[in-house]
Amino acid sequence: MTVAKPLPHDAAMRHVTGEARYVDDIPVPAGTLHLAFGLSQIASGRWTEMDLDAVRAAPGVVAVITAADLPGHNDVSPAPTFHEELLSSHEIHYAGQPLFLVVADSHLAARKAARLAQVTAEETEPVLTIEQALARDWRFEEGPRVYGRGDPEAAIAGAAHLVDGSIEIGGQEHFYLEGQAALALPQEGGDMVVHSSSQHPTEIQHKVAEALAVPMNAVRVEVRRMGGGFGGKESQGNALACACAVAARLTGRPCKMRYDRDDDFVITGKRHDFRIDYRAGVDDEGRILGLIFEQFCRCGWSQDLSLPVADRAMLHADNAYWLPAVRIVSHRLRTNTQSATAFRGFGGPQGMLGIERVMDHVAHALGRDPLEVRRTNFYAARAEAAQGGQPPVGPFRAASPRSISAKMRGEEGAAADPSLDLTSRGAAQAVAPQPAPRSEVPGSTTPYGQVVEDFILPDMVARLVESSDYRARRAAIAEWNAAEPICKRGIALTPVKFGISFTLTHLNQAGALVHVYTDGSIHMNHGGTEMGQGLFQKVAQVAADRFGVEVERVKITATDTGKVPNTSATAASSGSDLNGMAVKAACDEIRDRLATFVAERQQADPATVRFEGGRVHVGAQSYPFEDVARDAWMARISLSATGFYRTPKVEWDRIRGQGRPFYYFAYGVAVTEAAIDTLTGENRLLRADILHDCGTSLNPALDLGQIEGGYIQGTGWLTMEELVWDTRGRLRTHAPSTYKIPACSDAPPVFNVALWDGRNREETIYRSKAVGEPPLMLGISALMALSDAVAACGGPGAPYPALDAPATPERVLAAVERVRSA
Amino acid sequence: MEITLTVNGRAQALELDPRTTLLDALRDHLQLTGTKKGCDHGQCGACTILLNGRRINACLTLAAMHEADEIATIEGLAPPDDPGALQAAFLHHDGFQCGYCTPGQIVSATGMLEEARAGWPSHVSPNLEAEVALDRSEVAERMSGNLCRCAAYTGIVEAILETAEQERDVEPREAAE
Known about the structure:
The structure holds two protein chains of two kinds.
Chain A: H1 12-17, E1 33-39, E2 45-51, H2 53-57, E3 61-65, E4 91-92, E5 98-104, H3 107-114, E6 118-123, H4 130-136, E7 145-149, H5 152-157, E8 161-169, E9 181-186, E10 192-196, H6 201-212, E11 219-223, H7 238-251, E12 255-258, H8 261-267, E13 273-282, E14 288-298, H9 306-315, E15 326-333, H10 348-366, H11 370-377, H12 457-467, H13 470-483, E16 487-500, E17 509-516, E18 522-526, H14 535-547, E19 554-556, E20 559-560, H15 575-602, E21 610-612, E22 615-618, E23 621-624, H16 625-634, E24 640-646, E25 651-653, E26 658-660, E27 664-677, E28 683-693, H17 700-719, E29 750-756, H18 780-791, H19 809-821
Parallel strand pairs in A: 1-12, 10-11, 14-15, 18-19, 28-29
Antiparallel strand pairs in A: 1-5, 2-4, 2-6, 3-5, 7-15, 8-13, 9-10, 9-12, 11-20, 13-14, 16-27, 17-18, 17-24, 21-22, 22-23, 25-26, 27-28
Helix pairs in contact in A: 6-7, 9-10, 10-11, 14-15, 17-18, 18-19
Chain B: E1 2-7, E2 10-15, H1 22-29, E3 48-51, E4 54-57, E5 70-72, H2 74-77, H3 85-92, H4 102-117, H5 136-142, H6 153-176
Parallel strand pairs in B: 1-5
Antiparallel strand pairs in B: 1-2, 3-4, 3-5
Helix pairs in contact in B: 3-6
């Protein structure tokens, strides 16, 4: 077995020796040109004149391209119903918007020349804040989207206690250490090869084809690896790839573009910032009887992926809690700022933080332990989940292999218009909703009608309460706080229940291509991209396991739109689930052919043939795998196969907010202890204990890394990473000097992370669970621990801290003063 | 201008614009792309190299200033097929995810271990005079100039601590011989 082993990343040795190549490291042909955008300095209005003479005359400049020079579509939007210009044809929507493109013989020459433009513009008053957007009713979709059930107003009116408030939740810059980059290499006949640092090669291919006015088959996109993505490379690489391709077409030379870090901050989108207002009616135990959320989501100027992001925030407004009567209202507001985009969790973290704030607030209002309030409100642990939700052990049913070329054919009512980008999550409106009636299971049904079938959180919480010594530490902290006047400590436990699947149902598909060569070596390709999450190694482990060989025999190759077409973005935590299954289907196809071949030769039953230890076993005989491969080739048996997978069971109507958007849920629990200095607001994390559910982990080492990294990235979002725009809409935090992400010394000094030992009740690849996004939300416990520490500053009857995120020292200090002044 | 840079023990003549940073000289002119450009502002540490054995950010210095210096990059730490102790420890402890910061982390840690051996105190050292005892908080403090957005810090610290311990175990024996 090569699965479930803690093997290192696929290119581990190349990473530690510096050999691993990213886009900017690829040796380029002589004569390669370098690109830079000229950017808008104003946030709103229109440019009337651009004097680019000085730019053209600058040393090293080969060409300057404006919107009028573009050979094809001037659109890099992933949303088919929204137009997002590569270069502004006049309208200006945010400070940092690309206006023109400089092509020069060096990166520095291009950047310097871009500063020499004289732009005359008519500036208008920008819409920057949630309040301004509401006042102007500037939003995406016709009005707020509303999901819910029951009569929450009546439930709140009839409840013993009303708890209401509001939380502001900041955005987050991705700060992938490798900035956005692309390289376009012109080919004969107008074809284009593009190397892109992208989570979505098919999207790059699609947008480049449109930009060049050529069919998609004239563009091939290759992605070997990214130096971090985190969602920031799902749609935000389109502009660079299109710019390179267009410049390469116009100059006939290879073109490369890499955003300087400041430009990357200023041009590209970030996590959506939110304000969430809440009104909860609760009983004396803190049980929620009725709850109304109003989510205000700042989407920036472009639609991008904002609709599914805002949907996912609504779908996580329950987190782990049964809400008998609930209304969730979501406003998707437009502002003259960078287009907020995908970021690990994709709206889920914001929605989840809303309900965790409610739990914390309810506990404070009633003077109860927050953990008990959370437990009181948990979804019911259903009978079938009592043994960890594990179905009986049995052989895994292989997905029926089918050809990749057939996969879009007649499925899911895919629209015929070729300009529609069906592979993008931004295509949310392009697909007809499907009715999905569903029966309610009281205590176990989410507000959107999906039954929570494997609610393992009560058991996980019990285990972590014990292993983290939560109760004793909580008592010790209370004692310490009573004696300590200046510093205060806090502790909090928060759960995570995260829905796994693309909410745009048709994206839940994947393809793979596997070859076995006559020397027994294996070449594997699938639609997923590697950004550090370890996808390539996990999927290689699957391939090796299917053939019973060591993983070293499997060649991991760059993602390539010429090998596996029409792929979905590597996003929504779905990479291993989808691509692992597709690769398994392809491997099993070849394996079945080999089994039939050797069985016939030995006059045995093909079902008895085993692939183990690098050998093929049939009856009492066994042969080296490479001998079987060679003999099969001699017998004219194909050693190449495609594999395809589509996630079963999911069906979802995003307009009505009803159905089963998720194949399953991934769970986690975290306990964080934090300390604050009440004189300065400075704070730090002292200890974190985590228990996380990866089903049967495909690779425990890689999964642990995802959990630790996700938690820390989550604490960064909620405690230190602060984006500041000035009153003119200019982002003032555009470099690591002004935007602080967690450093080595910010990780909690005591950090205990464990995997929950269980299997996925659904038939995922080797019963594993997705792990990319869910751990980020474990970081919510850090904000709640800080809130607990602030609350310790107040006497009896002191107000709730209402700590907003990120809980920077300023915000912590303000909350301390608020609590103390009462 | 013409300059000669000595990188990983090899002197190489280059024709450079005098304003070229050492990082760009390494990456764009010597094709040593193991040293990464993360922020180009001296704040992320991805471009850390050793200058006469001391760690610096290659993006914050001009190539023209280093004609007489010994420059070491990730490529020079060990032959590709035979990683050094620190590199092996990063492999063993999974001290990375996307790998982009990794060369900088490893070069920085190489320099940091040397600083600790030389007795340089850090912000968290309890005693400025005593020998440095590297523990988790010392390593975290001394490595806080190398950002890892994947936050593989647990593995990074473990890898460095393990290497430091191995060296501690080896050194007394060498001294005794």
